Amino acid sequence: MNLRKIDLNLLVYFDVLIQTRHVSRAAERLGVGQSAMSAALGRLRELFDDPLLVRQGHEMVPTRRALQLETEVRNVLREIENVIEPPSAFDPAVSERGFRVRMSDLLTFLMLQDFVQILESQGPGLKLTIDHLSPDQTTDALVRDEIDVAISTGLEVPKSVLMSKIYRDSVVCLARPDLKVQKQLASAESFAALPQVRVSQSPLDHRFADQQLSKMGLKRNVSITVPHWLAVPDILCATSLVAAVPASFAKRVVEKYPLCIRKLDVFENEFDWSLYWHSRYHNDPAHKWFRDQLMASGARQFGKSAKGPGK
């Protein structure tokens, strides 16, 4: 394909057409006539050899090809903008930029209070949205520009996604103190046999319990599976179940619940909480400021948890 023959403005038209899904509204947003927008849509259809937008009733809906192109075209336009117009300095005090962060409920429990205080004091106009996604969904969302950053552990990401370690944590066993489970934690076999709570969306639960036990030919005796970490302490208090949880979480939990922390050394139990972001935003001043604050907040809060009372 000869790029010299392609009008790159067509990508701008495409982006607005997909956002509005309406020729007239797209024309109004770009300040052009409806006939010019219709002509641009025709050229786009010829360029991509696809209808892109098709009418269904009173609406225009994108084709599968258009949806596949949407993120790619938006990324190309952003890269072109960065080349032509380098990013300006960022002032959080006056910015109203929005950020989307992938965090589990465990991480919001550990980190969010401190971080929102930073935003309120330094960036009162900034908007924050928290998404709780599975590991695979998290990676896809970073690549597709649906979230700005993610905090998780052990994500398998492409080279376009960057990572920085926040804190080294470990896995412990959390249970009622009267259960006297210490002897059963001495071997992988006896630990696997204990009735347990499992968190279904947790890469930690999979990687540091199910996956490692599976390599030993063992399977956990999971009695209850829940989607959220914050349901675990109440379940443990009300039952004879145990749970494999991060030490940072356990040490915060035992301050509020009559539960006991036990060491769990029957398999590798150390891991890193990390911050993930796409390389497209690596040099963006606003994004960098946001990442720096999130990293600092995470280090403070994880460190605070780690210094809590252990049992």
Short key terms for the protein model shown above:
single chain; about 300 residues; alpha/beta; Arc Repressor Mutant, subunit A; D-Maltodextrin-Binding Protein, domain 2; two-stranded antiparallel ribbon; 11 helices; about 45% helix
How would you characterize the overall build of this protein?
The protein is of the alpha/beta class and 311 residues long. It folds into two domains: 3-84, Arc Repressor Mutant, subunit A (Orthogonal Bundle), CATH 1.10.10; 94-311, 3-Layer(aba) Sandwich (D-Maltodextrin-Binding Protein, domain 2), CATH 3.40.190. Helix content is 44%, strand content 21%. It is built from eleven helices and eleven strands. Strand 3, helix 5 (105-122) and strand 4 form a beta-alpha-beta unit. Helix 1 packs across helix 4 (64-84) and helix 2 crosses helix 3. It starts with 8 loop residues before the first helix and ends in a 5-residue tail after the last helix. The model is unreliable at 306-311 (pLDDT under 50).
Brief overview:
With 311 residues, the chain is an alpha/beta fold. It has helices at residues 9-20, 23-30, 34-48, 64-84, 105-122, 135-143, 188-193, 203-215, 232-238, 247-253, 285-306; strands spanning 53-56, 59-62, 98-102, 127-131, 149-152, 161-175, 195-199, 221-226, 243-246, 260-263, 270-278.
Please trace the helix and strand order, writing H or E for each element. HHHEEHEHEHEEHEHEHEHEEH
Low-confidence stretches: 306-311
Q: Which term fits the overall shape?
A: elongated
Architecture of the largest domain in CATH?
Answer: 3-Layer(aba) Sandwich
Q: Please estimate the helix content.
A: 40-55%
Characterize the largest beta sheet: strand count, sense, and whether it forms a barrel. 7 strands, mixed
Please tell me how large the radius of gyration is. Answer: 25 Å
Number of helices: 11
CATH class of the largest domain: Alpha Beta
